[in-house]
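During the reporting period the student researcher (J.K.) took over the structure-prediction task from the postdoctoral fellow and processed the backlog of single-chain submissions. One of the processed entries is reproduced below for the supervisory committee.
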Amino acid sequence: MAKFREHDLRHALAGEVHARPFERLHAPAQATHMALLTGEGEGPRDREHLATLCRRHGLPPPDDHATHYSGDFGTFRCKWERHTEFASYTFYSEAAFEDPFADPAIHRVPRDWLAGMPGQLLVACHMAIEPRDAPPRAFADLHRIFAAESLTGSRMAGGNAEGWTDFRLHADGFGRILVRDVGLRSRQAGRLMQRLFEIETYRMMALLALPLARQAGPEISDAATELAGIADRMTAIEGLDDERAMLGRLTRLAARIEHLVSGNAYRFSAAQAYYALVETRIAELREERIEGVQTVREFMDRRMAPAIRTCEATAGRQDRLAERIARTTTLLRTRVDIAMEAQNRDLLRSMNRRAKLQLRLQETVEGLSVAAISYYLVGLVGYAAKGLYAAGVALPVELVTGASIPLVLLAVWGGMRLLRRRLTRAGGEGESGD
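J.K. obtained the following structure tokens:
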């Protein structure tokens, strides 16, 4: 077989779709899922902290560039995943239990190690999967475990499981999800557990944008009011100085909105992406209604969708406001440019009038110069004629002097024109050279 030149990332990309396999679970099982915000580029801290736990239990640590890890630590299993801006940890236990949330899986993890986890805790949730031979729970029992007013449940995985939650934080600071195994296979149970945890995680990540939207709303309204006031005063301002002052106000307003957009854009776009993942994971649950209880889909449509629409509306408002500011700025700049062009036109007209006056003055001075130079030259001719007459040359001094006047005038006038022509030509060549 021919040997091909492979792309450097071929094997990494081919294995990416298999990078995070589902766990195999057998009821009864418990799990605790946690997601901590660490920011981008904090993967080494997560891996090092996980490596500490692995070394404590004699297990090989994750690779230096790993983004996921799954290991059996004896009394519990741990699955770690590194995402763009958060890290998630899921701890599993398959021991039998009576109360699904009295002794959760996280109680088997060393407390000092948990206390040192890097990042800020955002998601913390317990899940318990009851075996299929366990009796179905009555609503009174479910209301003891969950808040009755927000109880959510449905048949999932094609009717092979029943799931219950209330999307609330309980006294221990953790959420709760209860699943009853009706006919789940081990991989199916692992997929269902991961999807439910991902719904909770991505829901919280998407809702991070909501406080920003609420905070940005009044600022956008204030900026819109200021922009409307500037637009109303544009037709009443007079003078270039007023227009420049208003242009300065618009520039400051544009900078203010641009700062707001740049601060919120990432969070708003991330909220849309996370919400899309929530929608996908809910669809993968394949819910079937349990009479008298809202499904996960209905709960999200009623509680979460309005929050996401608020974020989308706020993002749209600030983008449209930025566009309005840009249009208003362009209009005002055009007005300033027109005013400056009018000033330049008047200045050019004034310069043209001054140039004409200077030319006329120059011509007047030139005429006087011709007369003055001719007067002196005629005087020189007269002196020369008198000298020759005194030397014995019979010359009519007055006649020679008088006859020289037109000749001198013509010669001086021609010389002045020739000099002006040369100076004009030299000035034109100098401008061309510049």
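The committee noted the following: The beta strands are 29-37, 68-72, 77-82, 86-93, 120-130, 152-156, 161-165, 175-181, 288-289.
J.K. will present the remaining backlog at the next meeting.
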